[in-house]
Write a structure and sequence with these properties.
Blueprint (H helix, E strand, L loop, with lengths): L1 H15 L5 H7 L6 H15 L44 H14 L5 H11 L4 H14 L5 H11 L4 H14 L5 H17 L4 H11 L9 H14 L6 H15 L2 H17 L4 H10 L3
């Protein structure tokens, strides 16, 4: 029964939206984004679900906060199961999501959460509250299976879904050996396929940088080859993702440390000063640090 009540709470929060707090707001003149509003709701729900006799209903003593009340006047907050929180699909209110986490934690059942978040991301793929909640579910309940396939599916739908690139790296950090050359080679191949579709999208370039920089770019030589192929066009004056390739190639060359590579990196920085005027100061500084 208690689990069912908490599930009702999740449904309540999901379907009705912030307007469900209107009674709390009307009585206390508190905006829905205030954490105390959601804390009051959660406390109220816990007290309602406590067995008879578990929760003291004595009025609070005047002049003292709840935490300052004597033990006889303290409400007993006994954790029970969870209720379904009301998370409007496009909610920008972080407190709604944290309330949902509290309910899920008490219910101990996240079986419907990943599909719930997926529905929200279909409407707004950049909803960082939804992504944060999804990552919390994955970590808390070890629900990693199928998540890499989920990110691949999102990228097939929208190759510029930068949040999906971030999610893929997050999953690999938690579940894979990022020092494995086989894994890195497979991910480089994955990124290269998407670079062919949107070479000017910085996310796959940053994805490659994040994977290879900690272990060394020479772990997967194909990364340098990818950069060389596109940077050659960039040095010749072509437009597109060449600037991204040149920037990553600077990192690859500097990491190699060979004198000829360092000289090439300096030339690339000089070219980028002209080709990337918004970041000209950065490339000037970067050139001064090559070999330092």
């Amino acid at each position: 029964m208690r689990n069912a009540a908490w599930r009702d709470e999740l449904d309540y929060c999901t379907v009705k939206g912030l307007e469900n707090l209107k009674n709390y707001q009307a009585r206390r003149a508190l905006p829905p984004h205030r954490p105390v509003v959601w804390d009051m709701r959660l406390t109220h729900r816990i007290r309602r679900q406590a067995p008879r006799g578990d929760c003291t209903e004595r009025p609070l003593l005047p002049g003292a906060s709840v935490s300052q009340q004597p033990a006889s006047h303290q409400p007993t907050r006994r954790p029970t199961s969870v209720a379904k929180k009301r998370t409007p699909t496009r909610s920008a209110c972080a407190q709604v999501w944290f309330h949902r986490r509290s309910c899920i934690s008490k219910l101990g059942d996240s079986s419907r959460e990943l599909s719930f978040v997926e529905d929200i991301l279909e409407e707004d793929s950049k909803n960082y509250h939804a992504w944060g909640h999804r990552q919390w579910v994955l970590k808390t309940f070890s629900s990693w299976e199928g998540e890499l396939d989920f990110t691949a599916r999102l990228l097939r739908q929208d190759v510029r879904n930068n949040s999906a690139w971030n999610q893929r790296y997050f999953v690999l950090q938690a579940t894979a050996d990022l020092a494995s050359s086989d894994l890195l080679a497979a991910e480089v191949e994955f990124a290269e396929k998407h670079l062919a579709l949107a070479p000017s999208n910085p996310s796959p370039w940053n994805y490659l940088r994040g994977l290879l920089e900690p272990v060394g770019y020479d772990t997967v030589p194909r990364v340098r080859a990818i950069c060389e192929e596109r940077a050659a066009d960039g040095e010749g004056g072509a437009a597109g993702g060449e600037l991204m390739a040149m920037g990553l190639l600077v990192d690859v060359l500097v990491a190699g440390g060979q004198p000829e590579d360092l000289e090439r990196a300096r030339r690339l920085c000089a070219t980028l000063c002209e080709r990337d005027p918004i970041r000209a100061a950065y490339w000037t500084w970067r050139r001064s640090r090559v070999g330092a």
